[in-house]
Amino acid sequence: MNCIVVDDEPLANDLIKSYILKTDSLKLLDCFTNPFDALNFLLNNKVDLIMLDINMPELNGIQLLKSLPYQPFVIFTTAYSDYGAESYEYNAVDYLLKPFKYDRFMRAIHKLPRASDLNRSTITNEEHTTSQKILFVKSGIQIHKIQIDQITYIEAKGNYIYIHLIHKNIMALASMNDILKQLPESDFLRIHKSYIVAIKYVEVIEKHQLFINDTAIPIGVTYREFFQQRIIQLGFGN
């Protein structure tokens, strides 16, 4: 069963990870301390089980679940007992109060076969791939839901990134590496330390720059060889 861990406490995250790694029936896909990174991963990957903390800043576990278009199995892990009743509204398999030991963790895992009989909303891998081309980013106190195919390019300025969409721009506090992990490799290229471009919106390519919507974007020296290889593969060089 493919699973992820979402817990903003690094020590708790590491402990649950260690439990999963010694459980043969589970395959750990990733661990997240940032719930926004976890949400974007869930929107673009098929996950069977989430080990999910509830009380996290900015986006708690319940809010994360409400943002999903499909319902994976969930085992809540939290230090607070007052969320118990609400958690079972989401067909939680179990509710683990921290700190918990491996034997208690395994009692929760053993409930999964019975939980499979629940009436859940499921989707196929193909439907999941085609429907979840969205990205959530935080800008100030707002959370923006972005259609990935509306992104023309992304620009880094200091600690912030500017996501340029067809009709507007959004500023977010994030790194280029973090945002690049959330984008499909087949559709986006990093061509400069400060720029990621959507391939389908590239209109003109020159030696050291390209153009998107009449905006000149530099191609960094360290990215040029890889960029040249990719554009040849895509047919720009023919």
How would you describe the overall organization of this protein?
It contains 9 helices and 15 strands. It has a 5-stranded parallel sheet. Helices cover about 30% and strands about 30% of the residues. About 25% of the residues are buried. Residues about 115-130 have low confidence and may be disordered. The protein is α/β, with parallel strands linked by helices and about 240 residues long. It folds into 2 domains: about 1-130, Response regulator (Rossmann fold); about 140-235, OB fold (Dihydrolipoamide Acetyltransferase, E2P) (Beta Barrel). A hairpin with a 2-residue loop joins strand 6 (about 135-140) and strand 7 (about 140-145).
Structure described in brief:
With 238 residues, the chain is an alpha/beta fold. It has helices at residues 10-21, 35-44, 61-66, 84-87, 102-109, 112-115, 125-131, 176-181, 224-233, and strands at residues 2-6, 27-32, 49-53, 73-78, 94-97, 134-139, 142-147, 151-157, 160-165, 169-173, 188-192, 195-198, 204-205, 209-212, 215-218.
